[in-house]
Structure of IS630 family transposase ISMex30:
Amino acid sequence: MRAAIEAAGARSLYLPAYSPDFNPIEQAFAKLKALLRTAAARTVPDLWAAIREAFKAFRPYECRNYVAAAGYDAFDPT
């Protein structure tokens, strides 16, 4: 397979073994869970409101940083 890829002028990149440290969604979930714990919502409507507010705390640059910290190229549209 490698020979066919290289013959086509391409190269193959191997992903690291799974690790939460290399999964950007794990970092985002950690922040989300911390924000929800702080909100201490005790009813379903309050939980939904807390989730809406927590999502406002995520900025595009921060999400790009999660992806870049995991070793992936983060797309920057600016």
